[in-house]
Amino acid sequence: MTKQVTGGPLLEDVHRVIADRACSVLSLDIFDTVLWRRVPRPADAFALLGSRLRDAGLCPPWVTDATFRRMRIAAEDAARRGRDALGTEVSLFDIWRAMPAGIFGSAPLEQLVGAELRLERELTAVDLDVAALVQAARKQDVQVVLVSDTYFTEDQLAHLLDRPELGPMEDVRIFRSNQHGTAKATGLWEIVLRDLGRSPEQVVHVGDHEIADHEVPSALRVRTVHYSRFDEPYLEVLKREREPVAPFGDHAPDLDDRHGDFGLTSLRAKAVRAGVPFTTSALDVAWRYGAGVLGPVLTGFAEWAAGKAHEAGVRRLWCSMREGELLSRLINEAARARGWDVEARPIWLSRFVTSLAGLDPHDTDAVHAFIRTGYRLSVRQALAVLELQPGDVPSLAAELDTVIDNGDIADRVARALTETPHLCNRLAVTVTTARERMIKSLRKAGALDGAAAPGAPDGGDAELTLVDLGWGGTIQLQLAKALEIARIGVRVSGLYLATGTRAERVYLAGLRAEGYLAQAGHPEHVAATVTRSPEIVEQCVSALCGSLLGFTEDGEPVLGETSDTPTQNAERRTVQDGVLAFQHLWNRYVAAADGGWPDLTRPGPGRDRLARILVTALRSPTADEAAVFGNWTHEDNFGSSLVTTLMPADLKPVVPYLSPGDLDDLGMRDSFWPALIAASDTGLGAMARAIADDAIGPEAFDPAGEPYETRLRYRTADDQWHDPIRRRVRINHNGLSFARIAFEHHDTVDISLAIPGRPAIVRVDWIEAVVIAGGRRRERVLRWDRPEDFVGLHYADCRYLGGSLMEFDTSYAAVWLPLARRAGTPTVSSAQVTIAFAMLPQSMTGMAPRMPVDRRAERAARAARLSERLRAEYRTAGVKGVAAGAGRVARRKLGDTR
């Protein structure tokens, strides 16, 4: 557990000074130190004031929140500039006198000032860490004074400071800038020291302003603590979230009329700086991600889940592992802080276990779908998952090491497992055993308490409410199916952080599944982002253990090995500590407010703000986040031993070739988090952020004119060419292009690549094909990146120009790659083909001058093709094949086409 420092290390130093009585006066700034507002910036409170004045009939409807905010800012500026020799310090009455009186009808000045004061009272909260300093100073008889640049009068400040957290304030002296006609930076500090009659060294001052609270008093030898509200890394996060940070900049988004930003901006900042200095910068990044990004999102989610249970009278929630350990703790803390009789417990469930428990062993299509869910299992692994021995399925004996990477082999396996009653029964035993063990585990945990026994009269089903991060609701759907098969009367409901469009299966099954930030794919921008790149959230929330593989006979979980490194585990723990630190801070304010603190359970600006925090973090990770999280590993968790990193190693070389649109074209298996790739490159990252911020459309980074596409066709052993698979061709900021296309077919021989998809001169830097060949378990990497690799290829409507240059004359012109022959096998069953190239588009009319051909390269290419053909004929038919081939060449030369 990462140590949390209350109020940060700086306030700990002040506590020690007070405890040692090493000062005689504790001086505090008021706003953003003793009190802070539940808005991102002080001026954002004016927008809420405009809304309230409209609701009260004191302001016309045409004055929007943003308009009133701008008016209020301008009025204060005009009031200060209009003081002439009286100085720039003003009162709230002076500011309201500068407002256009006609807009507010006959409302007296006192009423308008009072409305603003009431809003300030509602929006301000006592900084609990600073309040602890006040209490400590009183115990040690250290005098407390307040020094503030403010337009509030003494009575107004007394009203704002009358809080139980601060205790009685009658003995606290307040030095106000508008009282003395000068600000802290221009003379107020001299007045404070003179009136106190103390030497500067006896005074310790805490405040947020770098100049007024730090530089100026420090020059007078006052000991100061710069209690900065935001640091630079946090400001960058706010900018990423499109939160205006300039004091008088644009109107802030997602403000609630009553609760502002719910205190999220300030509490996130406090949580971020609450961590101790870390031994590595990576741990600091991890803490900030937990405290500043996931902390508020998961705090809101936990509060919502607990609130839903409380409203429905559900006393117990079940959080599926591995995420359940942290989620149950967050929910229990939320329920305790709000006084709700709700308890959450972790429970061992997984997508794999529930899918097996709910499988219909007699349904070939269902078995096929189950097998394909695991990523590139071998036949041997698939049988092991189903607890079958190789000898149990003789028809698959010759294919045990074949990878199930295409529909044909999956069909053969599924048919083999379901074609005989004997094998169906064996499979049914496996499924039934898995289901019964899972049910035993649920009963031991208490999750099925109140369930009707099979065959008992229908007295209404009990309810089991799952809490999970969500996405497609697979665990809920499969668990409900398994319980229905076992005739256990329990309805399975789900509460999720977000669900995507795949959750429609859950809704069609009549199951209740609610989403906090998104439900059933809506709002689309939230659901699409979260479900496209969920891996970092899952990894950060998961417990430090392997994935669930099944259960023992007595219902105990069987866990797989974990591939996490000690470094990743330390960073993950730090993220989780940051999450808990934010929730702890949030709940401190919930408790201190005695029921008056806003909650994050209802739809509206609060949840919209949390969605924006998460979505922008996933769309625009910082370079530091990419450096840390890119090295984290991911386990497939469905019977496969596959382990990959969040920043795939095979994509690192292609980063210079990528355009923002190429990131969107990547599949989930290409990259779990495409934005992480963008963050690793300055130019690509800037473009991706501009698109994510809606500053520019993605089409701005695409070539002008008609779009064109790289097309891949594959030829199978029956000599049939199959329909092309297409990918958009783009030219990026480096003048480079990229295409990645994957296909699967059990007996592929060759592929053709129409690389530019239009007439063009192309420099091919490299082509890489990762293939599964000849039923082999391991992937083969085939690469073409040298002139000798390109010389012997077949060119259809295109020409080899020498080196790595090719000229494509038409949109369908293509170069052929002999995948099977290069892999040394008769066929390949699947491949992922990546092309890195640069292109110079040519006229679509075909009338442009053609590039001169390197005759030596042309002769070498012809000789290479001829020798390769002769080798193929020799392998096929020996000397007779070579002679027959030579005869065909001779007849062609003589014009005989027989």
Description:
The chain has 32 helices and 26 strands. The strands form 6 sheets. Strands 17, 18, 19, 20, 21, 22, 23, 24, 25 and 26 form a 10-stranded antiparallel sheet that branches. A 5-stranded parallel sheet has the order 5-4-1-6-7, sandwiched between helices. Mean pLDDT is 89; it is low at 1-6. The protein has 898 residues and is an alpha/beta fold. The longest helix has 39 residues, at 855-893. Strand 4, helix 7 (154-161) and strand 5 form a beta-alpha-beta unit. The relative contact order is 0.07.
Mean of residue pLDDT? 89
Structural class: alpha/beta
The number of helical segments is: 32
What is the radius of gyration computed over CA atoms, rounded to a whole number of angstroms? 34 Å
* N-to-C CA distance: 83 Å
Helix content: 40-55%
Strand % is 15-25%
Largest sheet, in brief, is: 10 strands, antiparallel
How many strands in all? 26
Which stretches are low in confidence, meaning pLDDT under 50 for 5 or more residues running? 1-6
Shape: globular
Question: Secondary-structure blueprint of this entry?
Answer:
Layout: H1 9-19, E1 25-28, E2 35-37, H2 45-55, H3 65-81, H4 92-97, H5 109-123, E3 124-126, H6 128-139, E4 143-148, H7 154-161, E5 173-176, H8 177-180, H9 188-196, E6 203-207, H10 211-219, E7 223-226, H11 232-240, H12 264-272, H13 281-312, E8 316-320, H14 324-338, E9 343-347, H15 351-357, H16 364-373, H17 379-385, H18 407-418, H19 421-445, E10 462-471, H20 474-485, E11 490-499, H21 504-508, E12 513-518, H22 524-532, H23 535-541, E13 548-551, E14 557-559, H24 566-592, H25 605-619, H26 623-629, E15 633-635, E16 643-645, H27 660-665, H28 674-679, H29 682-692, E17 709-716, E18 725-728, E19 737-754, E20 760-773, E21 780-784, H30 787-791, E22 794-796, E23 798-802, E24 805-808, E25 814-817, H31 819-823, E26 828-841, H32 855-893
Parallel strand pairs: 1-4, 1-6, 4-5, 6-7, 8-9, 8-10, 10-11, 11-12
Antiparallel strand pairs: 2-3, 13-14, 15-16, 17-18, 17-19, 19-25, 19-26, 20-21, 20-24, 20-26, 22-25, 23-24
